[in-house]
Amino acid sequence: MTTTATRRDLQVRPITAADNAHIAQVIRVVSAEFGLTADKGYTVSDPDLDRLSEVYSAEHSAYWIVEYQGKVMGGGGIAALACSAPDICELQKMYFMPDVRGLGLARELAICAMEHARQRGFRRCYLETTASLTRAIKLYESLGFELIDRAMGCTGHVDCEVRMLKVL
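RE: above sequence
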């Protein structure tokens, strides 16, 4: 893409099966950009990466796609945190291509996801990331997430050393 998207050019919508390969590719490209490799347990190692519409069709889960001129450019989702208390959800798979960064989409999607979770009875929201994603950490802090010392649930992301929690 040669031009940067503007807010009015973007569509945010729920994921569909037709989006699976496209959002998986976005996640792979952005992960490579930041050195988040599969061998270290980052999202690109997720065995369900190519079927996210099915994964997020589970009860109380949701995933939203960011589209620009008919092309998937990012997304983010929410789901119950596996192996944890039933009132804890996890903010998951927030990835955006460079042309749609800086437009407030991550903030919008995170707020949307947390409201979705709140309406479904979740009281806390957990997330994991890595220290190299400094802009993401600043965003999460601005949304009220606080750093915590220990991992929660069974995420499988062993190298995500930054763990955060927010009361919804």
